[in-house]
């Protein structure tokens, strides 16, 4: 691929190489989910891995939702 532009390469590729937050798999309320730990005992849901089908439609467990979490 050839890219012809007047923009500097730093601006074009800004954010292209980013490190993802470390995630962990936990079981909360009987559901296996992947979360990224936040500060003060909270976690953000990345994705659901194993749960009843109706929980995928529950907005309380949607990806991006912040939940209370403690190791």
- What gross morphology would you assign? elongated
Number of strands: 4
Helix content: under 10%
- How much of the sequence is in beta strands? 25-35%
Which secondary-structure class do the elements indicate?
A: mainly beta
The parts where pLDDT drops under 50 for at least 5 residues are none
**What does the average pLDDT come to?**
88
Spatial gap, N to C terminus? 47 Å
Q: What's the alpha carbon Rg, rounded to whole Å?
A: 18 Å
Main beta-sheet strand count, sense and barrel state? 4 strands, antiparallel
* Element order: H for helix, E for strand: HEEEE
Strands in their spatial order, largest beta sheet = 1-2-3-4
List the total number of helices.
1
Question: How is this structure best described in words?
Answer:
With 71 residues, this protein is mainly beta. The chain is 6% helix and 34% strand. It has one helix and four strands, in the order αββββ. The protein has one helix at residues 9-12, and strands at 24-28, 31-37, 42-50, 66-68. The chain has a four-stranded antiparallel beta sheet, with no helix packed on it. A hairpin with a 4-residue loop joins strand 2 and strand 3 (42-50). The longest helix is centred in the N-terminal third of the chain and has 4 residues, at 9-12. The protein is elongated and about 55 Å long. It starts with 8 loop residues before the first helix and ends with a strand. The relative contact order is 0.19.
């Amino acid at each position: 691929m050839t890219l012809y532009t007047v923009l500097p390469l730093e601006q074009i590729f800004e954010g292209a190489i980013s490190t993802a937050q470390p995630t962990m798999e936990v079981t909360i309320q009987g559901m296996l989910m992947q979360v990224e730990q936040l500060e003060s005992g909270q976690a953000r849901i990345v994705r659901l891995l194993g749960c009843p089908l109706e929980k995928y439609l529950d907005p309380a467990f949607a990806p991006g939702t912040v939940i209370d979490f403690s190791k």
